[in-house]
Amino acid sequence: MVWLSRCCFRKYGNFVDHLRVYVKGGAGGMGLPRLGGQGGDGGNVWVVASKDFSLRKIKDRHLDKRFVAGVGNNSTVRALKGQKGADVEIPAPPGITVTDDNGKVLGALNVLGDKVRVARGGRGGSFHSDFLPSKGQTRHVRLDLKLIADMGLVGFPNAGKSTLLSAISHAKPEIASYPFTTIKPEIGKVMYDDHRQVSVADLPGLIEGAHMNKGLGHKFLKHVERTKQLLFVVDVCGFQLASHSPFRSAFQAVQLLTKELELYKEEVLSKPAILVVNKMDLPEAGEKLDELMHQLDNKEDFCHLLPEDMVPRHFLTFRHTVPISASCGQGIATLQQLVRQSLEEQEAEATETQRQDKLRTLRRATTSPLPAPAATRPANPKWGLSYDA
Ligand SMILES: Nc1nc2c(ncn2[C@@H]2O[C@H](COP(=O)(O)OP(=O)(O)OP(=O)(O)O)[C@@H](O)[C@H]2O)c(=O)[nH]1
Ligand SMILES: [Mg+2]
């Protein structure tokens, strides 16, 4: 056990999913009162979504975690307009949300090339400021990584999430019969014959109380926020974390996982979800699956199987329920097809919603009455003139 926790710590320590850095915009340059010269503005600090960059790399390359932009040049007789200070860019992976120390979101990097200004440079001295420059903005900002993947695997430990990922993609996650084998998220790519790719994020197992920071779940729950869909994975024969913890059947696991997500952030449950019932190669799996399907079809009748405060407010309706055996390969091809189908349906739905929105806006624009002629509009009492809004 000691060995296990040490090993976990070492590997966990390698993965960085948030970073707090100090940023400072450059000060502006002095103006030149005698000739009306304007000092250069200070440089800005930006966070830019860049290829092949991880938060770990930033941390390793900038041990002091300080990013300071260049100062603007003073105005001189030779160069009345001082040169602007150099900008500084912090390269970061896509999927980053940037917040200040008060938790205010400054911006998000979703695709390569997206950039967020995190510290503004000071203004160069000019006529308007008595030729005195201003200082650059100084603060700490937090970079928070949320993985971007098409599907996120959600399940109790040992359900077989990593085994499934290795069965459907080229990823080689660690697999073992003890809980919490996966301690850092990993993304695998499912390749289809027509070269379409679907990314699947293997996340550490959730346990009851994950939303309250129990287990590793809480730290990684944020990663399900950015996946397009959820792939619930349950062991058909149920799960027991330790000898003193209660045994949970597959039905209970589904509902408890739903509740954990609900307690973390209810919006997450609005994502389409697929239920994967794993380990169908085990003896009695068939009967267990029948029981699960019956319970899922009559959820209300089986609420008593859950702790009172763990009954989800809304039961999740899965787009598909797929029995598989991740280790034997049974049902894998069907699952791959259903995953793709579900993503394509979601894309089509999104396009349809966009089309409907556009149509509605267009209709509103064409049916709204024309603005009244200026002469008939009420006069602004303050100036005694008619005014335009
Ligand atoms: N019999 C059987 N065993 C399986 C199957 N899939 C996974 N297992 C076993 O279940 C155990 C857990 O598998 P993992 O893939 O590590 O489970 P996980 O959900 O990733 O677990 P954590 O990383 O701890 O959350 C391993 O011993 C696997 O060999 C299956 O389809 N059938
Ligand atoms: Mg795992």
Automatic annotation (TrEMBL):
Protein name: GTP-binding protein 10
Positions of the UniProt region annotated as Disordered: 346-389
InterPro entries documented for this protein: G_OBG, GTP-bd, GTP-bd_Obg/CgtA, GTP1_OBG_dom, GTP1_OBG_dom_sf, OBG_GTPase, P-loop_NTPase, Small_GTP-bd
Organism in which the protein naturally occurs: Coilia grayii
Extent of Low complexity compositional bias: 364-381
PROSITE patterns recorded: G_OBG, OBG
GO process terms (BP): ribosome biogenesis
Residue span(s) of domain OBG-type G: 149-344
GO molecular function: GTP binding
Residue intervals of the Obg domain: 13-148
Record's keyword annotation contains Nucleotidyltransferase: no
Location in or out of the cell: Nucleus, Nucleolus
Database matches in PANTHER family: DEVELOPMENTALLY REGULATED GTP-BINDING PROTEIN-RELATED, GTP-BINDING PROTEIN 10
Family designation: Belongs to the TRAFAC class OBG-HflX-like GTPase superfamily. OBG GTPase family.
GO cellular component, one term: nucleolus
Alphabetic keyword roster: GTP-binding, Nucleotide-binding, Nucleus, Ribosome biogenesis
